[in-house]
Amino acid sequence: MSSSTGRVALITGGARGIGAATARRLAADGLAVAVLDLTEADAKPVADQIAAVGGRALAVGADVADPAQVEQAVARVADELGPPVVLVNNAGVLRDNLIFKMSEDDWDTVMDVHLRGAFLMTRAAQRHMTQARFGRIVNLSSTSALGNRGQVNYSAAKAGLQGFTKTLAIELGRFGITANAIAPGFVVTDMTRATAERMGVDFGELQVTLAAQLPVRRAGRPEDIAHAVSFLVSEGAGFVNGQVLYVAGGPQG
Q1: CB burial class (10 A; 0-12, 13-18, 19+) of residue 170?
Q2: Alpha helices per DSSP H over the chain
Q3: Long-range Cβ contacts of 53-57 (<8 Å, 24+ apart)
Q4: The pLDDT of residue 200 is above 90
Q5: So what's the pLDDT on residue 196?
Q6: Predicted TM-score (pTM) of this structure
Q7: What would the CATH number be for the domain defined by 8-185+221-247?
Q8: Which range (79-88, 204-213, 214-223) has the least confidence?
Q9: Cα–Cα distance for residue pair 25/13, rounded to 1 Å
Q10: pLDDT per residue over 165-195, tens digit each?
Q11: Which of 65-79, 191-205, 226-240 has the lowest mean pLDDT?
Q12: Catalytic residue among 107, 134, 154, 186
């Protein structure tokens, strides 16, 4: 067991993909885990998996872009599991399009979930962290923060999360709270599968093509990102603060 045993982690977008893998990994590390997704029903299978192997988990439904729902969700986690001192802002959506085709709704939806959601969740959770004089915040950015055709909204949001992270590190470090970002490259998830479908590309062929461009010669897996989260939220990572870790199978930038 890690020295984090007994602490409570809250993972947004925890029903599938990177979020689900992270929830399972942190539970294996000994943390109690709140699995948050848009509906409690979506989050429940992952929470049930954790409970089935002896972990403590809670399924929570909330729209991360809604202030009232966020406050209620964090309060429920604190009441039922304990004060959340680990927060993983993973919730995300895609609304890809070229700039001349992108609607205001496409822009606003991506900004609301990624940036507004991370802001609201962090504002609510940091109260518990400052009281505990311990906290770990991990924000999921992306290699798209460096720019990616057809993702002007997503790229801007993910770049914004990096600035958000660095400012949190400056503001909250004195309370024993660290804030870091992970920027995954191509990871095999339902979201990237849906992207391939929208592009009219076979998902298996896309994985092979993209993997061939990477030094490690394979696509990323959700567990790759979960391992990185596990390190950043650990007791031993207390001197790692305000960093952006690219987990992408090769150098970036």
Answers
A1: exposed
A2: 17-28, 40-52, 67-80, 104-111, 117-132, 152-172, 190-199, 203-211, 222-232
A3: 53/27, 55/27, 55/28, 56/27, 56/32, 56/81, 57/23, 57/27, 57/32, 57/33
A4: no
A5: 79
A6: 0.95
A7: 3.40.50.720
A8: 204-213
A9: 15
A10: 999 999 999 999 999 999 999 998 888 887 7
A11: 191-205
A12: 154
Q: Residue 244: how many CB atoms within 10 A of its CB?
A: 18
93 CB-contact burial (10 Å; exposed 0-12 / middle 13-18 / buried 19+): middle
Task: Select from 116, 121, 20, 31 the least CA-distant residue to 72.
Answer: 121
What per-residue confidence (pLDDT) applies to 3?
54
Question: Could you tell me whether strands 8-12 and 32-37 are parallel, antiparallel, or unpaired per DSSP bridges?
Answer: parallel
Active site residue 246: no
**Residues 198, 129: Cα–Cα separation, whole Å:** 41
- The percent of residues above 90 in pLDDT, for the chain, comes to 87
DSSP symbol at 138: E
Q: 81 is written with which tokens? A: 């599991």
Rounded to 5 degrees, φ, ψ at 101 are -105, -10
* CA–CA distances in Å: residue 97 to residues 60, 102, 177, 199, 249: 31, 5, 37, 11, 26
Domain boundaries of the chain, sorted by first residue:
8-185+221-247, 188-219
Q: Which residues contact 132 (CB under 8 A, 6 or more apart)?
A: 83, 85, 176
pLDDT score at 94: 93
